[in-house]
Amino acid sequence: MQLGFSQNDTIKKDTVVIKKIYGLRVGLDLSNPLRSILNKDRKAMEITADFRVKPNLYVASEIGYLDQFTNEVKYDFQTKGSYFKLGVNYNVYKNWLDMDNEIYVGMRYGYSNFSQSVSNIIINTENSLPPFEQPQTINYDNLNAGWLEFIIGIKAEVYKNLYLGFQFSGNKLLSQKKPENFQNLYVPGFNRVFLNKTGFGFNYTVSYRFPLFKK
Amino acid sequence: MLKIVLKISSIFLFFSFFSCERDDICIDPVTPKLIVLFKDKTDHTLSKEVNDLQVEIDSLGVFVPYGGVQTTDSIAIPLRVDVDETKYRFIQNYGDDTNELSDEFTVNYQRELEFVSRSCGYKTIFKDVSISNLSNNWIDEIEIKQQNILNEKEAHLNIYH
User: Fold this and answer.
1) Is position B13 within any domain?
2) Total number of domains in chain B
3) Which of B3, B80, B82 to mutate to test the interface with A (most CBs of A within 10 A)?
4) CA-CA distance, A9 to A151, in Å (whole number)?
5) For residue B14, is it within any domain?
6) Contact with chain B for residue A137, Cβ under 8 A
């Protein structure tokens, strides 16, 4: 009697193919309303969207609006405008079975059209004279900026087609229309512009995927 | 892979919240002061100290002392940034009842507002500088060395006495 199994049996390959859901995912950023509660001088909103084009590749976009009053030591300025970002996310996370979570890296091109308005200017004399406040407000309209974002983010499917996610971006300004006799210290979508034309971004989104087809 | 991604994202997070850059502190030159050199009236190339000098600046019709009494051959004093002229009173031998001498003059200019940087804000620069209403009690002559006062790199006025 022979026990065991024959080594000559061919091992059948796992034929279970998990089909991925393709669809338009639309999200709302929750970090902006949260920041508005803490900072009454900041009003902003952002809507996100992405669409899977390959199992791990997504075309992604953000669109938003900002109205922020910034208080500096010797002047104040108000930044108002909208922005649009377009790019891709690449998922580097290997899902189990039919799970569909993401840890992704991505890139965006961002563009904003905005205005700046400077007020309460106290001329810097190093306190050698009594402070003098310029009476006028200086308005700069039709400013713009274009930049590149390097992105890292996470999206978790918490319920069928419902996602929670957060995303960080490191930004680099590529082009800008500068105001005469002022600087673009803050740009909608880019956030604070640091000296070397870099910036940082963050969002926290709840999003829903409208499924279109499986592949 | 997950660990790497989390590490990278925590680095991002760290820099986004704890980044402190040079533009948080004002280190650029702001509104320039008027730099005055005191020279000998007989030989314009020679520096000549003023004994116990007290400078007063007109502030809304009242002369207010600026700085302390000092014996010096040069001073840096502020120009008014709210109007296009600054009236000065220069007193030598200040506090000495017998030798105290006082002179007044007005510096006239056009003001321009100039943005410096995020932390420094705005400064004023002064153009088309001229002198008027000089009394000649101890000051013989005032010479304008710079038509525009843009920085503090060189003297703007020579006072001969």
Assistant:
1) no
2) 1
3) B82
4) 49
5) no
6) no
